[in-house]
Amino acid sequence: MQGRTKGNAQGIDVSHYQGDIDWQKVAGAGISFAFVKATEGETYKDPTFMRNASEAAAAGLLVGAYHFLRATSAAAAKREAQYFYQTASQANKLLLPPVMDYETNSGNLSDASMSAVAKAFLEETERLFGAKPIFYTGNAFAKHFDTSLGSYPLWIARYNASTPPDDAKAWGRWTFWQYSDGSSGGTLPNGSRRIAGISGNVDLNEYAGTEEDLLKAYGPEEDQPMTDAERQQMEELSERIAALEKHVNLSGDQTPPSWTKTSTSAAMKAGIITSVNDKGMPEFITIQMLYNAGLCNAELIKFFKSFSADTRKAIEDLLK
Description:
This protein is an alpha/beta fold. It has helices at residues 23-28, 49-58, 74-88, 111-129, 211-218, 228-247, 259-269, 282-292, 298-305, 309-319, and strands at 10-14, 33-40, 44-45, 62-68, 99-101, 134-138, 154-157, 176-180, 203-207. The protein is elongated. 34% of the residues are buried.
């Protein structure tokens, strides 16, 4: 796989192990992105997830959530994906894709079974989040997964100062490289492994592109100026809304035509309606809206005219 490149965007990944983090200082140290642990297995939620996700985003970092996979079957993997989504979806401003962290084989599965488990989690995660997830794994562990998983962006762990990760069956390039755990491996561009705002060790990562590239790939969409065609559509829509508001009498002037009181009283006596609400008289307004909407057809007009001479005259005046 490719090596590190000068100018690539720098990031970290964190969990409760890092304790309290001053994210403003982290951002000031040249860190552009952060992956925050959300869940593990089917029941564990990292207690610092919501705070880290919120504060990292507020500091201006691009933030994503990751899940540590424990499943040993496809069914369990889907359940873990659902738990991950239930937890991570509570956080706002997660712009980086969701991540599956698959780095242990506690069930002693075959490579084919491991690939099936991974695929089940990734497909369910993509369905739930509506975004293609990232596959995180270790340099040696990546060899277990087949080529069907190569369409997922790779976040690879290899703690080495200069030697890039090995090619794997599914991947020949990485999108993110975790190049240090904070105590060994590569260093930041400034030659250090320490990050301001974090008291202890923290994993260091690099994106395969500049910060500008990272923002283009995952940043928020910028508002684009409205085109002439879009402006015309908006004007036409505004006119239609204004006409509709007038049509259904949403202006606040709910005074019905005079003839509706007689009509409504007659309708109530006939059992067609059961009450008249004196806080707006919705039945009166309904009759007015029927007329405004052009829905007073011949049968309704005949029905209303039958009530009284005054009602008949009022309707005839309306129809002139």
